[in-house]
Prior knowledge:
By secondary structure, the chain is mainly β. Helix content is 9%, strand content 62%. The protein has one helix at 19-31, and strands at residues 2-10, 34-36, 39-55, 61-72, 79-88, 91-96, 99-104, 111-112, 116-119, 122-125, 129-140, 143-150. A five-stranded mixed β-barrel has the order 5-6-7-12-11. Strands 1-4-3-2 form a four-stranded antiparallel sheet. Strands 8-9-10 form a three-stranded antiparallel sheet, with no helix packed on it. The radius of gyration is 20 Å and the shape is elongated.
Amino acid sequence: MINIVLSSILKPEYLNKEYKKLLLNVYKQEYETKSNDCGYIVKVNEIKDIISSMLNNNNDIIVESLCNCDIFKPEIDMKVECKIDMIHVNGIFVSKYKIKILIPESSNNYSYKQSYFIYNGKSYNVNDTITIRIVNIRYDKYTYSCIGKLI
């Protein structure tokens, strides 16, 4: 868990005694399952503090809040347990949350079969869970994508 600053437009109809609860729901809709500089936001847990609020030129109420969030930030050499999404002759596609990770065929010693692969004597199918090591990360247009290696 980490505290990060999130901002959003608060609709005028939300200005009542339940505003904090409604604002938390807005943050959840806007930020959960999205990436930013801090990492991939898995869940917005709570609003710790309202930092600022102001009106813009369109009379929108802009609110900045310090929020407690569950964050996943991929790092090189990180071991990650992933779900197998697709098995292809050129590589295996896995995901952690909604971050896509490619395990290229050229960098691993596994045996590709039509609908499964064998690694270290064990058979793996789509939707199975496997542990990998991240070897490369790309962050572009608020999206992470990674290259992994079987371990």
